Amino acid sequence: MRAAIAALACLACSANDTAGPPEPGEFSCDPADAIGTFLLSWELMDGDCTTPRDTLSTGGLFEVPAGCTRDRPDQATERGCKVEQAVTCTYDDGSTVSSVLVANQHDPDGRLFTGLMSLDPRDPAGNLICRAVYAVRAERQ
User: Cα separation of 47 and 131, whole Å?
Assistant: First the structure.
């Protein structure tokens, strides 16, 4: 669950993300749009892991919690409205959770972010515990 939140903490922006100057109705995104209090909701799309409960998240959706590291630099589209983030969290018992999140911002002021997150938790010996792909939704509160 912490890894899922960590990956969501990596969430960035979306909707009309194309090259060139914005057309009417299009917008650019700023990482600051993802700072605040968000209700995180999860829906299992594929896999055999359990679904996390809805969670209230404060701070930045793209922050990586203690014990977690980015597997590579975040990859954002030109306007910053769609971001991919890969994170691995290591816990005290040696277990790990790796996640990849592709997230979109749907409005210019950051009220809604959605995305897909894959999650691969492993036990201390490195054995896969389960695998999941979640649809994730973050709504500003």
Answer: 5
What is the rounded CA–CA span in Å between residue 31 and residue 60? 9
CA atoms in the 13 A half-sphere facing the CB of 68: 25
> 124-140: string of b/e by CB count within 10 Å (b at 16+)?
eeeeeeeebebebbbeb
CB atoms within 10 A of CB 24: 4
Please state, in angstroms and rounded to a whole number, the distance separating the CA atoms of residues 34 and 110: 6
Q: Could you tell me the pTM of the whole model?
A: 0.78
**Cα separation, 66 vs 25, whole angstroms:** 38
pLDDT in tens, the chain (141 residues): 444 444 444 443 333 344 444 444 578 888 888 899 999 999 999 999 999 999 999 888 878 988 999 999 999 888 888 989 999 999 999 999 999 999 999 988 899 999 999 999 999 999 999 999 999 999 999
* Residue 106 to residue 115: CA distance in whole angstroms: 11
